[in-house]
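Because discrete structure vocabularies remain unfamiliar, we reproduce here a specimen of the format, pairing a chain with its fold in token form:
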Amino acid sequence: MTEENEQGPVNPKIVEVTRRLSSHRPPRKLLILVLLGMVLVWVGNSSFFKVNTEETGVVLRFGGFSHLAQPGLNFKLPFGIDKVFLVKTGRNFKEEFGFRTAAAGVRTTYDPAVFEEESLTLTGDLNVSDVEWIVQYQIIEPFKYLFRIQDPQATIRDIAETVVRKVVGNSNVTQVLTTDRAMLAADIQREIQATLKDYDIGIRIVTVKFQDVNPPDQVKAAFNEVNEAEQQKESLILQAREQYNREVPKARGVAKSRILEAEGYAVERINRAEGESTRFLALLEEYHKAPEVTRRRLYLETMEQILPKVSEIYILDHKGSGLLPHIPLRGVEKEVKK
């Protein structure tokens, strides 16, 4: 006989199979083992966590600080007892002011309507400069960074902008736009770090760098002319210094050389005079001892010096018979013709 339900007759074979399946229920131990395995898997997944290379894990236990987790696989208590916050302590973060980087290596075009509140800065001599800069920082104490203040990034930006406006406001426009930008950036970095130390939020400033500093568009042409004049002035000063460094040492060298020559000549003359006076005194002493011998010796020495220079030598005989002897002085005639 065929059973019927509200929807129509039911096949007896199907009814029989259903009855047999319902009569073979799984054992209670098997269910317990399955449930225990699922619990163990869930506990294992909630008890281990991974910390990447440039990260540090901050573990809170019952809402209070417990410990820091280093890179690798770490254990924590399950069931929400321990909570883990991962902080990238091995990376340098960057905050941009006056511009934004759209992607790596791609910089957005400056839009005054968007960034002028950040970039336009008043200098100490009441000039306006368009300053674009970056601040790079690193998280060194992740727990303080997470829980000391509500929004660390916004705090860093506010402090950096305040310090930049203060330092630039104490400088003149020439220092900001040309000569002292590196020194001003170093001062800004030190002051930002000192302020963050007072806040105690676990941040270390890596660097502060001016990306670009320009005058506003309204006065850019006039400033460029002034800058060109300053550069020309510096160029002329350098040329003058080069000429000075070339000519002055040369003149000093020539003067020193002349002085040394004069001193040498003076020493030579003095030594010669002293030698001649010493020689004369020695001759005088010998002359007093033997006047005739000394006179003849001086005469012979003088002749030894003169005769080699004479081209012709004439010896006159005092017994000559002529009233006016004729001497053909050929060397004298040649000198007279010349």
